[in-house]
Amino acid sequence: MPRVYVGIGSNVERERHIRAAMAALREAFGPVRASSVYRTPADGFEGDDFYNLVACFDTGATLEELRARLGAIETAHGRERNGERYAPRTLDIDILLYGSLVRHDRDFDIPRADIARPYVLAPLAELAPELEHPETGERMANLWRRLGDPAALHKVELDLRAD
Q1: Which end of the chain is least crowded, N or C, by CB within 10 Å?
Q2: pTM of the model
């Protein structure tokens, strides 16, 4: 069963949507581990700051099934897909890594290129510092040390444990 890492973000009713996403992931996939939550400026547009984190879980779902399930969770929490690419989001859940799979085609970008962004790499390196990037073999902690810009990231105290 592959271990999946997903990036989760929201800048609309952030706490409510982040907590709802974690609850939905646990309901759909079982135990879920999560990084700290980070507040970061909107990237690519003017808007409220985002809350971002990375979560991981094991799943027997295929990549296509996983994407459909995550899309359903986003939609259930108000995600609209007919707007601009860079716009406010109630909930955004992106598949960052799916085991050691490397797939770059019209349908999937795995590992996701967003891993190189500080708001994704910092929580990913926190959650899984020894995890190796499937294309480069470099550990996430090393990638973060090289890329890191802690000034742009602010940890947020948000309890994401299951009730």
Answers
A1: C
A2: 0.91
